[in-house]
Amino acid sequence: MAKLRFSLNIPATEYKRYYSGAAGSVLTVADNGQQLQFPAAELRRYVSRSGVHGRFEIEFDERNKLIRLDRLAK
């Protein structure tokens, strides 16, 4: 299993595209420079009125299947 950390700063107006299904995946860059893509639906529990903001850690298996996504404490 592998873990990557990254930051997100998605304003509410932009996140609406993900929430409505117009954009199905989030594409970002992990701290190590690796490109990372995962289903936008995984962020729903972290959405606030201002959007999705913070530091996150994603864990995936050897087939790159997402196991979990957590927001890290500040």
Which outline best applies? globular
Fraction of residues in helices? Answer: 10-25%
Q: Helix/strand/pairing class, anyone?
A: mainly beta
The CATH topology annotation reads as: OB fold (Dihydrolipoamide Acetyltransferase, E2P)
Number of strands: 5
User: Between the first and last Cα atoms, what is the distance in angstroms?
Assistant: 24 Å
- CATH class call: Mainly Beta
From the alpha-carbon coordinates, what is the Rg to the nearest angstrom? 12 Å
Largest sheet: 3 strands, antiparallel
Q: Roughly what is the average pLDDT, rounded to an integer?
A: 90
* Number of individual domains: 1
Oligomer: single chain
* Total of DSSP H or I helical runs spanning 4+ residues: 1
Biggest sheet: strands side by side, in what order? 1-4-5
Order of helices and strands: EHEEEE
Q: Which CATH architecture is right?
A: Beta Barrel
Uncertain residue segments: none
Q: What proportion strand? A: over 45%
Structure description:
This protein is mainly beta and 74 residues long. The chain contains one helix and five strands, in the order βαββββ. It has a single domain, classed as Beta Barrel (OB fold (Dihydrolipoamide Acetyltransferase, E2P)), CATH 2.40.50. A hairpin with a 5-residue loop joins strand 2 and strand 3. The mean pLDDT is 90.
Q: Brief overview, please?
A:
The chain is mainly beta and 74 residues long. Helix content is 11%, strand content 49%. It has one helix at residues 12-19, and strands at residues 2-11, 25-29, 35-39, 51-60, 66-71.
